[in-house]
Design goal:
Layout (H helix, E strand, L loop, with lengths): L1 H39 L6 E3 L2 E3 L1 H39 L20 H39 L3 E6 L4 E4 L2 H6 L3 H4 L10 H15 L4 E9 L5 E12 L5 E10 L1 H13 L3 H7 L3 E6 L2 E5 L1 H6 L4 H4 L10 H12 L6 E6 L5 E13 L2 E10 L1 H18 L4 E5 L5 E4 L1 H7 L3 H4 L14 H12 L4 E8 L5 E12 L5 E10 L1 H45 L8 H29 L2 H6 L1 H15 L3 E5 L9 H22 L3 E8 L3 E7 L6 H6 L4 H12 L3 E6 L5 E7 L2
Parallel strand pairs: 18-19
Antiparallel strand pairs: 1-2, 3-4, 3-7, 5-6, 6-7, 8-9, 8-12, 10-11, 11-12, 13-14, 13-17, 15-16, 16-17, 19-20, 20-22, 21-22
Helix pairs in contact: 1-2, 2-3, 16-17, 16-22, 19-20, 20-22
Length: about 725
């Protein structure tokens, strides 16, 4: 500002000088104009002076010249002095020694030709000085921005106070700690944010800082906007301006509220330690540098000592050598998570313990409060479980464990080998991922009905592997119950019986094929041999008419013999058709069953309802023979044992073959018959159905008849 003022003043002087020069030029022009006029009229007037004839005009001219000379001296003086002053001030401008009040400079001649050059040099030097000052200002601004960013992003509390202890600057970290906005703190005294007693102590310490005593780690207490006590550790030092004058103090602070609260809490609860320790069911140890200071009765008894014997004992004495380094490292590192180690009792026996350590600090010492649990029983159980787990993993049977909702929690190695599913592919899923679709809904419904009741279920399941291959399993599924019979898990132990089932099926097929061949042979024998034989008898009996009998008698006898023979022939045909009816081989089991039902209606007083499919499905001939034999066996059992009035058969051919058989007879216990091996008819039925992998389900009760359902899946 001062330099600009000097330049402005200099410019004003230059303008004034230019005006004076203009006036001087004007005066010269007027003077010479007048002189010219005088010379022009100089011969007009003349006078006689000192006896000489003198021209009056010439005298006047000389007088005017004298006056003009005097005027010229005055005017030149008015021009010369400002020029001298200009040059002097300009030199001082160039040399940066410009003083507006200096008017004693010696005079010198103005060199107007060099004046623009000097002025240019002065301006260049002035511009360089301005650029340097601008660069300094830019660097200062950048440094200020970096400093401000660093300060504002710091987690520490940064502050500045004036000589009166009023805040002049704080960073944003204060807002979170104190819950005040920055503008609510600035300008206020440190007395405004604490109690009166604490404020007196803080002010005294603050004045010591103003006297040049630096403070490090000074602990004080502030009160937040919501009234919470905030404990801070403060570092402070004197703050001076550029002239070295003390303007206040500045420093940092950090929040130690958590630590102070913990220390206060520990101090408050120290007298309660003994009572809490004695009431605890866990062992409690209070130690410093692995030396026991205090322990409760439970911990001492855990290791076979008395509490007094434990005092001043090093923890290494209670730890198995292999575990000592691990425990000591956890203490040194203030590890506060659960971990286990093996302990040594007074009698030398080994126990397993679980410990959780809590590092504490007070009275300028680091302590450790440890909570010890005796887990030998649990560890022994875990060892047994590991052994059991090893046995399960190496089992020749596949094992599945599910939660109470049927989601798989565990499968063993054999399961993955058998099914092709890795454990991670089935964990969390339902075992129905193995479902083959070859079992009826009633099959699974009955299984879960037994399991939900808490019963064990045994049976054979036709399942599907990951690659789509089918296989048979003999499964035992049992619920695992906890306390108060709460269901915890289901465990399924399964054995692959595919080869066994295939062998059984081959044997059954061989037996059935042999049986059918024998039936066919026997039917052929009856038809081909017994038929002609009876026909021969008929011919022989016809000759009986030639004996000596009355004609009427002979005719009556002959008629009776003929009727008996005809009935025998018809009976033979019926037996033949029952064993292996040609209609079965030619037209299938539906037509053969219809034919059989018609014949039964003639001889038996029972009502039949046969609902056959609207469209017939092409079925393997072996399966048709088995279905026909099973249905004939069911009908014969109803006729012989059920004393039923009605039989109902429903056959449907959709995607699968489904047959439902009902009667309204007296009913019986199907399972007991099979278990006690009573009733060969039912056993034959089940064996035949197994031979074709058919699903079946049976229900019956006293006086409610029977219900038998058969399903064959494609």
């Amino acid at each position: 500002m001062y330099f600009g003022y000097k330049v402005t003043l200099l410019k004003t002087q230059i303008v004034n000088m230019k005006i004076n020069r203009l006036k001087f030029k004007t005066k010269l022009i007027v003077f010479f104009s007048v002189l010219f006029l005088i010379l022009l009229f100089s011969n007009i007037v003349s006078i006689n002076i000192f006896n000489k004839n003198i021209n009056v005009i010439t005298v006047i001219l000389l007088f005017l010249l004298l006056i003009c000379f005097l005027l010229l001296l005055v005017i030149s003086k008015s021009i010369y002095y400002p020029s001298k002053l200009f040059i002097t001030q300009l030199n001082k401008l160039v040399t940066t020694d410009f003083d507006i009040h200096d008017e004693s400079s010696s005079s010198q001649q103005i060199d107007f030709e060099k004046l623009p050059l000097k002025l240019s040099e002065a301006c260049n030097k002035h511009r360089e000085e301005i650029n340097k000052r601008e660069q300094v200002e830019i660097n200062l601004k950048e440094s200020e921005l970096k400093y401000r960013d660093l300060v504002e992003t710091s987690q520490d509390l940064i502050w500045q106070c004036d000589l009166n202890g009023c805040y002049t600057f704080i960073n944003s970290a204060w807002e979170e700690i104190m819950e005040y906005k920055t503008e609510e703190i600035l300008g206020r005294s440190l007395r405004d944010f604490t109690t009166e007693n604490q404020a007196n102590i803080d002010v005294e310490r603050y004045y010591s800082v103003l006297n040049g005593i630096e403070v490090f780690g000074y602990e004080t207490m502030f009160i937040s906007k919501s009234g919470k006590k905030i404990y801070l550790a403060i570092n402070a030092r004197l703050q001076k301006n550029t002239k070295g004058e003390t303007i206040g103090a500045q420093g940092t602070a950090y929040d130690i509220t958590s630590r102070r609260n913990a220390e206060n809490e520990l101090k408050i609860s120290k007298d309660k330690f003994n009572r809490l320790a004695s009431a605890s069911i866990e062992g409690i140890v209070f130690s410093h540098k692995a030396i026991i200071h205090k322990t409760n009765k439970q911990f001492a008894e855990m290791f076979g000592y008395t509490p007094d014997e434990m005092v001043n004992k090093h923890l290494n004495e209670l730890i198995v050598p292999d575990d000592r380094e691990m425990v000591i490292q956890n203490i040194v590192n203030a590890y506060d998570q659960l971990y286990e180690f093996r302990g040594i009792r007074k009698d030398g026996s080994i126990i397993y313990v679980e410990v959780k350590g809590i590092p504490l600090s007070f009275d300028d010492k680091n302590y450790r409060l440890s909570i010890i649990s005796h887990i030998s029983e649990r560890k022994n159980a875990e060892i047994k479980i590991r052994k059991l787990n090893a046995a399960v993993e190496q089992s020749a049977n596949s094992i599945i464990i599910t939660d109470p909702y049927g989601k798989i929690e565990y499968v063993n190695k054999k399961f993955t080998e058998l099914t092709g599913y890795a454990s991670y592919e089935v964990i969390g899923k339902n075992p129905n991922i193995l479902k083959s679709g070859k079992h009826a809904k009633e099959f699974y419904k009955q299984m879960w009905s037994d399991l939900v009741k808490g019963n064990q279920w045994k049976g054979e399941i036709y399942n599907k592997k990951k690659n789509g291959e089918f296989y048979w399993e003999s499964a035992t599924i049992a619920p695992v119950l906890g306390e108060n019979n709460v269901l915890l898990n289901y465990i399924a132990v399964k054995e692959d019986i595919t080869f066994q089932k295939q062998t059984e099926q081959k044997i059954l097929n061989a037996i059935i094929d042999t049986e059918e061949k024998e039936r066919k042979r026997f039917a052929e024998d009856l038809h081909d041999e017994l038929g002609p034989y009876l026909s021969g008898i008929k011919l022989y009996t016809c000759q009986f008419t030639q004996k000596e009998l009355s004609l009427a008698t002979r005719l009556e006898l002959t008629k009776n013999i003929e009727e008996m023979i005809d009935e025998s022939i018809a009976k033979t045909k019926l037996i033949s058709n029952s064993l292996m009816p040609n209609i079965l081989m030619d037209f299938g089991y539906i037509t053969a069953l219809e034919s059989f039902i018609k014949k039964v209606k003639i001889t038996q007083n029972i009502q039949f309802e046969f609902i056959k499919p609207t469209t017939l499905k092409t079925i393997n001939s072996t399966i048709e023979v088995v279905l026909y034999r099973v249905l004939i066996e069911l009908i014969n059992n109803t006729l012989k044992h059920a004393t039923a009035k009605k039989i109902k058969i429903i056959v449907t051919h959709n995607k699968n073959v489904k047959i439902e058989y009902f009667d309204d007879g007296i009913g019986f216990d199907f399972n007991s018959i099979l278990e006690e091996r009573k009733g060969n008819g039912l056993i034959n039925i089940t064996n035949r159905l197994k031979s074709i992998n058919a699903e079946y389900n049976f229900s019956s009760s006293q006086k409610k008849g029977i219900y038998f359902i058969i399903e064959i899946f494609n």
